[in-house]
Amino acid sequence: MAVITDYISLSTKGRRDVIDITSQIQDIISAGKIKSGIAVAFSPGSTGAITTIEYEPGLKKDIDQFLERLIPYGGNYHHHNTWQDDNGAAHLQAAMIGPSVSVPIIDGALSLGTWQQVVFIDCDTRPRTRKVIVQILY
Fold first, then answer.
1. Rg of the chain's alpha carbons, rounded to an integer?
2. What is the SS3 assignment for 7?
3. CATH topology assigned to domain 9-137
4. How far apart are CA 115 and CA 117, in angstroms?
5. Pairing state of beta strands 17-20 and 128-137?
6. 117-122: strand order across its sheet
7. pLDDT at 17
8. Which of 45, 51, 26 is nearest to 136 (CA)?
């Protein structure tokens, strides 16, 4: 088994900014001429998350509203007392979604459903520069 490691750089707006990273992952697969394997996208850091969704404006709003109802930014979190900051909700939101996804590669392409894309969600309370680690195992 061989491994390719690459990175996707992102500038985010924070506050549950949702960014489609599917094409960047596919570009890494294509550049490596990978026909079969597994693509793993991982977000280092504790306020970013990666998942799959149908990337469309309505669902992006639904995710924002759902997470705000479940884990609101304005809540009182012990994390705020520990670090004197305001992003306790961001840590909890990212932990709930998770930091990574794995997608099979078949015939040189990510094996996603018709309306399924890989997205990065920045749950932090401020804009950030992020790096997503992409590893291809083949």
1. 16
2. strand
3. Jelly Rolls (2.60.120)
4. 7
5. unpaired
6. 17-20, 117-122, 48-53
7. 97
8. 26
d(CA 31, CA 93): 33
* pTM of the predicted structure, to 2 decimals: 0.96
* Contact (Cβ atoms closer than 8 angstroms) between residue 118 and residue 41: yes
Q: Please report, rounded to a whole number, the percentage of residues in the chain having pLDDT higher than 70.
A: 100
Q: Which backbone phi and psi does 79 adopt, to 5 degrees?
A: -55, -35
For residue 5, CA distances in Å to 14, 74, 99, 130 come to 26, 38, 17, 16
Hey, where are the domains in the chain? 9-137
Candidates 94, 54, 99; CA nearest to 70 is 94
Cα–Cα distance for residue pair 72/95, rounded to 1 Å: 14
Residue with tokens 């894309």: 117
pLDDT digits 0-9 by tens, 15-51: 999 999 999 999 999 999 999 999 999 999 999 999 9
How far apart (Å, rounded) are the C-alpha atoms in residues 27 and 136?
A: 12
CA atoms within 13 A on the CB side of 89: 19
